[in-house]
Every structure is written in structure tokens, then in C-alpha cells.
Design brief:
Layout (H helix, E strand, L loop, with lengths): L2 E6 L3 H13 L5 E7 L10 H6 L8 H4 L6 E11 L4 E6 L2 E6 L2 E4 L3 E3 L7 H4 E2 L4 H13 L5 E5 L3 H13 L4 E5 L10 H14 L2 E3 L4 E5 L2 E4 L4 E3 L2 E4 L3 E3 L2 H4 L10 E2 L12 E3 L4 E2 L12 H20 L12 E5 L5 E6 L5 E7 L1 H19 L26
Parallel strand pairs: 1-2, 1-6, 2-3, 6-18, 8-15, 9-10, 9-15, 10-11, 17-19
Antiparallel strand pairs: 3-4, 4-5, 7-16, 12-13, 13-14, 20-21, 21-22
Length: 396
């Protein structure tokens, strides 16, 4: 019987991991199943563009996985039975159950409502494709002068509000944040950010934490009401609760607790990658939930899975974090470098050059999903029969 690897989620981390494993493991010994709620690979980093009215390239997962032997199951995960090593799902063909020998958990993240009442009922977001399309449809309904309010002051909020302002200049766009706009940026980047906001005519309300959202308005803690025809919630990310509900060891925020090989500390047949995983970076700080986490965590997880299942040694992975790329519409951007303590450096790439770098990184990330072994020979490693003999540690 073949060893069954099941991958939950086909975002950047999940899709890359699936194709890499398929090209490295022998099909006589392994089968790989990917479970994803949508039939397409979604470029989450571009969802603010989709919401603003732009068209994104269609990337069917069936085409990405063609010729790899990967089985695609388009369904939603409803639960994980860790004791019996199975996943329950529901899709167009009804409910089902998928058994696994090794599980890679890569369900990513969604918006963090911070417990604020009304967010789920009255706010829009750009953390998933269906949500971005709902926001887009709402914006299409608004007349000239319609009011749009983005809640949040960091990367996602900045990218969303500037994209909307550039693509929909007939609307009145505003932003409200509990702290300082772009507070993590250095002085040069911060000044450039404010110039961009002034150019777009975005009205900013700092130090105004929102305590509830109602139909047509957001209410701050001091009672100030911010009226809006569309409220976009972009105030941080939270992970799905399935991991915690399944009995895996998790952090207080619900991320899976893993070792440096992205292996669950409570269930050795379970690995995690992307935003779902809690891992300490090389600087001693928790690795952030961001686009930058997908690559290193998926590489570490796939390397460990291959090593543990084929009797090889696990190569160490570097979890470094060098900075933040921020788009400010299609023709402007920022690249803020950070030091070893994740604090902003004085230098920052700004303007059109930064926008080009950001787009190049996004294009490369999407391309890499379909070409995970570029520059490396494909391997066909065989399954070892004695799992207790799996070595660990650094590569020889």
C-alpha cells in the first residue's frame, strides 16, 4: 500500500509543497492528495487588485498539477481526526473522509476581527477570493462620491486603500487605524507613504480603535462614528480554528506549534507550512504571518517530510526576514528593510522601482508554484520501511 500524503490548502505554501513532493518522491511508493476549497490557485497577494476591479490570471489547480500524479479534491475541510489520521470534508459531491499517513497543514489565515461586534455581518475583506469579489460587487453599486472606509494601518490595509483610491477615483476613500499609519516603517518610507496618501486624497484617522461595526458606519472607542457605504476590514490575520479543535498542540492564537522542521510537537505525522505554523525565526522572534513565510516554511516542511520518509538527513532551513514590500497602487511602492530585530532600517526603496520589485516578486512566487524544482534535478526517492530509523539533524 502506498504512503498517503494529504495536503490541506493550495495557497502559496500548500501548492508549492504539493508539486515539490510529487517531483521528488517515487509514485510507486507515495500518493499525494491536495484538498482545497477552490479549484484555482489564488494569488492572495493580488486580491486587493481584484477587489478594486482588475482582472487576475486564471490559474486552475488541475493544470498546475497536470502530469504530477497529484489528486485534487475540491472541498472544504470540516474536521481532522488526529487519532485515526483522517480528514473529513464536504464538497459538491457531498461529505467524505480522507485517510492520511502524513499530513501537511497549510490552511493559511483569514481576517482577525479582534472580537469586534458586527465585522462578520457588515464588513468586507480581501483575505479570500470570494470576499474580494463581494467587495468588488459592492463597489460597483456605489454612485460617485460613495464612501469607502478601510480599517487597519499596516501592510494589507495600506495596499487595499491605495489600490482602491487609484482604481476608483470617483469614490471617497478613507482609512481608520487604532495606532499610527504604517507605524513599523522608517522615517523615509513613512514620509513617502504620507505623500502617496495625500496624492490619492485618502482621509486618515489615526489612534481611533474601532469597537463595533454597524450597517453603514464604524464606531470608535471614543464614540466617533465613521459613516461608510462599504467598510473594509484589514486589521490583521487569524488562523482557522480547525487545528486547535483537532487536538494538535497550538499557540494561544491557534497556530500549530512546530519544531524547526515544521513538524507538530504533539503529532509527528503532521507538518505545517505558511501562516498556519508558529515557528521562531533566526532573529529569535515569531515568524510573521505574511507572504514571506510561505517559501521558507514550505521548503522546510517538504525537506523534512522527504527526509523522514526516505531515510535521509534533514537539511537546516534559514528563517530570515529582510523587509516588507508594499504596493501603493500600480505605479508606486515601498520596500522597507529591517534589521535583525525586525526593526525598520533607515533605508527604503521607494516609488516606481519599488513597485516593479514588488510585482517581480509576486510574479516569481506564482511561477514557482508550477515550477518548484527549477534549477534542481527531479528525484524519485523511495519510502523506507522502518519509520523508527528515520534520521534527523543537519545534512551530511
Amino acid at each position: 500500500m502506498k504512503h498517503h500524503i494529504v495536503i490541506l490548502g493550495a495557497g502559496y505554501a500548500g501548492a508549492f509543497s504539493a508539486t515539490f513532493l510529487a517531483r521528488q518522491l517515487h509514485s510507486d511508493d507515495f500518493e499525494i492528495t491536495v484538498v482545497n476549497a477552490e479549484p484555482d490557485f489564488v494569488e492572495r497577494l493580488r486580491l486587493h487588485q481584484l477587489a478594486a476591479g482588475q482582472q487576475l490570471r486564471h490559474r486552475p489547480l488541475a493544470e498546475i498539477f497536470a502530469g504530477t500524479g497529484i489528486r485534487l479534491r475540491v472541498a472544504r475541510i470540516t474536521g481532522i481526526d488526529a487519532e485515526n489520521r483522517s480528514v473529513t470534508v464536504t464538497g459538491d459531491d457531498g461529505p467524505g473522509r480522507i485517510e492520511y499517513d502524513t499530513l501537511l497543514y497549510a490552511l493559511g489565515s483569514t481576517i482577525d476581527d479582534h472580537g469586534v461586534p458586527g465585522v462578520g455581518e457588515y464588513a468586507y475583506h480581501v483575505a479570500a477570493r470570494p470576499a474580494a469579489l463581494r467587495l468588488r460587487a459592492r463597489l460597483d453599486e456605489l454612485d460617485e462620491g460613495g464612501r469607502v472606509l478601510v480599517v487597519g494601518g499596516n501592510l494589507t490595509a495600506i495596499e487595499a486603500v491605495t489600490e482602491l483610491a487609484e482604481s476608483r477615483p470617483r469614490l471617497r476613500i478613507g482609512l481608520v487605524t487604532r495606532g499610527e499609519l504604517g507605524g513599523r516603517l522608517g522615517d523615509k518610507a513613512h514620509r513617502h507613504l504620507w505623500r502617496a496618501f495625500d496624492r490619492f486624497g485618502i482621509q486618515v484617522h489615526e489612534n481611533s480603535p474601532i469597537e463595533r461595526v454597524e450597517a453603514g458606519r464604524a464606531i470608535a472607542a471614543d464614540g466617533t462614528a465613521f459613516p461608510a457605504d462599504a467598510i473594509v476590514w484589514a486589521a490583521g490575520f487569524a488562523v482557522h480554528p480547525i487545528a486547535a479543535a483537532s487536538g494538535f498542540a497550538v499557540e494561544p492564537n491557534g497556530q500549530l506549534t512546530v519544531d524547526r522542521q515544521m513538524r507538530s510537537v504533539s503529532h509527528p505525522d503532521v507538518y505545517a507550512a505558511g501562516d498556519s505554523a508558529f515557528v521562531i525565526g533566526d532573529n529569535g522572534l515569531p515568524y510573521p504571518m505574511s507572504c514571506a513565510s510561505a517559501g521558507p516554511t514550505s521548503k522546510a516542511a517538504t525537506a523534512a517530510i522527504i527526509a523522514h520518509l526516505t531515510g535521509r538527513r534533514v537539511a537546516p532551513t534559514t528563517f530570515s526576514y529582510i523587509g516588507n514590500h508594499i504596493s501603493l497602487g500600480r505605479k508606486d511602492g515601498l520596500f522597507q528593510l529591517v534589521d535583525g530585530d525586525a526593526r525598520a532600517k533607515s533605508g527604503a526603496l521607494r516609488g516606481r522601482a519599488a513597485a516593479r520589485v514588488k510585482m517581480a516578486i509576486i510574479d516569481t512566487a506564482a511561477w514557482a508554484v508550477g515550477h518548484p524544482t527549477f534549477g534542481k534535478p527531479n528525484r524519485k526517492y523511495r519510502l523506507v520501511t522502518t519509520r523508527d530509523s528515520f534520521p534527523s539533524g543537519s545534512a551530511a
